[in-house]
Amino acid sequence: MCYSHAVKPLHEARQPMPLVDPDYVDDGALREQDRVDLEDFLSDMDRAELGERGVAFFSGRETEITAFRRIVNRLSRGRQGNATIVVEGPPGAGKSALLAQFQEEISGLPPTESGQREWLPVFLPANFAEAPKEIARAIDRAISVRLADRILRGAAQPAPGLAARFQAAMGPKAGIKNVKEAARKLAGRGGGAFGMSIGPSPQEPIASLGDAVARRAEHWSEWQIVLLIDEAQQISDQRPGDVSGTLSSIHQGGVPAPISFCSFGLPGTWAALEGVNVSRSLGGADLRVATLDESAARKAVNRCFEAFEVRNAEAWQQAIVERSANWPQHLATYLVSAMAQIRRQSAGKQHLDASAASLAAAMAIGDEGRNGYYARRFERLTRGNGHFQAYAETVVMLFRKSGGQLSWNEIKAALQEHDRSVGNDEVNRFTTMAEHSGLMRRDPSTPTYQMPIPSFAGYLLNEPLPEVAEPDYLADEDPCRDGEGGLSAQDIEL
Ligand SMILES: Nc1ncnc2c1ncn2[C@@H]1O[C@H](COP(=O)(O)OP(=O)(O)OP(=O)(O)O)[C@@H](O)[C@H]1O
Ligand SMILES: [Mg+2]
To answer: Does domain 3-25+60-198+207-288 have CATH number 3.40.50.300?
Structure first.
């Protein structure tokens, strides 16, 4: 009998020590995700890129990460079911960044408590969420990549002779990329190659995820699998290859393999999940992301300037925090425009120097990016219905008057002021689109609507942004810098 199945003393079973400290905050230092190349940072623009790492300067979201770690601890003790995590938030709130952070967390976890299983994050496109065959393929592929990685690193062999056979087949000069690619292809093609048999055969009939698991018991049993699904508002079971109830069986712990899933999507994600019978009442974590705490926003900005070793940055950091109003998308936009300006104006210098660039110019470029983001959101809202623009303007004015909260009935009354014939269906279409586009957010606990994105109202009402003054660099961080208003080397000579 293995340890995990042994009967434990009652007190131990009741108060198990957490395997992962749910409240630990590492500010990215542990995994060095801030070590990003400036060119890469600028080329990612202001979207969270899903790759092998968490996004640089990720800050805050302690509540969400704590909820994630609590579930990790449960899974680690061999509990299945009730482990589903659902994250909903408006566009630009940082859902994909949080997904990447969960992936980063998973990659750093110790094996499960019994030591039997290693954690395996698996990206799953939302349109495959109910397709057992695609889920099986995605998992096989992730395992193959991990095995190939292990093989190349010369770590423990997954099966006797496997690493040697794989390496021999790849040739002595194969780089990690090629080996991973070969593993991906192998998993995709299925069948046997190099004497390995990971992955489905192309004709494999799969009636359920349980079927797929049954065929892979040997390969999957050593992994604690977490499916990471982005854009989860698109989940449905109406596509070819879908088998209704697939996610629901994972959610309920009904699949005989250690699999759970996290979904990240726009408001409406829960409705999509309920449409495939994933019920809210079963537990797990139901999370909503919106603005960051101010301290988290400040941390993100400070970490960015520190990572790129920018001098004379204080006023810039303050301006970015204020201008982005703690909204993740805006933070990223202003950070990118600031770094791009500072890099350009620091050409030829040994260090990036903010005092060489114009803060007002950088913020003006950031403002353009921010307005572009709002224009896209607004375009999405008004695309399908010619009346929605006028509705939005009416509702935004009303939000201003009411102190920021409106009930569904108040919204309906506002739309009827605009057009007497507006009925409930039209109000619902509008509120749904307004939620998807980030204009409004429904708080189910009150229940009222609010505007989740700071300054979206100001944009729609054409309110000017505060002027940006060029900083006074008298209190110079770099005493050796020459220039207007700064201290010269002579000034500080005693
Ligand atoms: N917690 C955070 N700390 C620092 N930066 C963040 C954080 N969350 C998000 N960001 C940054 O904000 C930007 C937008 O985030 P992200 O792409 O994750 O938003 P999203 O909610 O997935 O948007 P969409 O709905 O459009 O997909 C990214 O550049 C990301 O790096
Ligand atoms: Mg996203």
So the answer is: yes
